[in-house]
Amino acid sequence: MKQEKNFIVKGNICYSEGPEKIRTTEQGFAVCLDGVSQGVFPRIPEEFQNLPVLDFGQNLIIPGLTDLHIHAPQYGFRSLGMDLELLEWLNTRTFPEEEKYADEEYAREGYSIFAEDLKMGATTRVCAFGTIHRRSTEILMDCLEETGLISRVGKVNMDRNSSPGLTEESPRKSLEETLLWLEETEGRYENVSPILTPRFVPSCSDELLKGLGEIGMEKGLPVQSHLSENQGEIRMVKELCPWSAFYGDVYDRFGLFGGENPAIMAHCVWSSEEEMERMKERGVFVAHCAQSNANLASGIAPVRRYMDLGLKVGLGSDVAGGVHTSIFRGMADAIMASKLRWRLVDDSLKPLTVEEAFYLGTRGGGAFFGKVGSLEKGFEFDAVVMDDSILRSPRTLTLAERLERMIYLSESCRVEAKFVAGRRIF
Q1: Distance in angstroms (rounded) separating the CA atoms of residues 286 and 384
Q2: pTM of the model
Q3: What is the pLDDT of residue 42?
């Protein structure tokens, strides 16, 4: 065992035991051995007495947060163009910016800023889109590797319905570049690994999707993409693929919809019952991006329905559709959006609770990476130490109340320390 991964952290510990239960331990001890949690205890058990103790005083200690969906090249223009709908926003804001990542120096500057800022937040695991540019995507992987965060990074595939500068010349060329990217990065990183990334069906021909599915099966790679985000997008998919039963059926036809290889589908705002059932059958992860869905006027995803059906659900920041990388903000926005869905759309779907939102941002999304997102025994030891002392109150607050306030007021709090798979990041 590596000595630096054997330690105990002491503080006010909060973690999910399930969607409806947050376990809190005041001045508790979370034990890490070889990067894996041994559990949380009110006192140090006899067998761990010789481990070093890192005492974080009155700070809150929680599992690291997982961001299932973020666009790294969009980080530099977040909060711009938020008065537009999705497809117009892509054409006027997103695609022109992503074209700039053909320039490797621009990519290095942009991705360095993105990675450095992400490192200092509460996110410990992330699934990120790059651009179509192979070398720039490798630069993104280099930058994220240096942070110590565990990341899945994708070279984006697009061979139709985009700007000229972001349209790969043919399905064959797109697949060749993807294979070369995989070859050049194989075995190069400890913390970063590839994920296949067809942007979405409107930008990928059937031939390209078929080839990506074959690569995924051959190499055992997961997939990330977008699904049923916007009604105009859904109509476009039906026009392009009239043979499909529904949007997700296109991915499924080409082996890109979960099953043997895990898949993340972002948004799922307008998924039909048939699509939901297929997602459940295939074990697809839904990346719920509540703020982006509001900013781009996409709609309100029925997250309660997904949870009731037993789908796998986590949270995504979806920068720059979302303007914050904070998954705490994602939790608060998920609760708010679910209230609007309940009040304005379907009063049979009760709003999310704080406990459920916290679960989605920790264990829910963390499950994509394995046994991740809790401090229970057997989970990889991802943890963040949060100083919430700036949130003053005349009241005496329970740990659960402090956690709830921090979810809503996290921008005022400080990440004091951060651990990923037992490695201290800072």
Answers
A1: 24
A2: 0.97
A3: 98
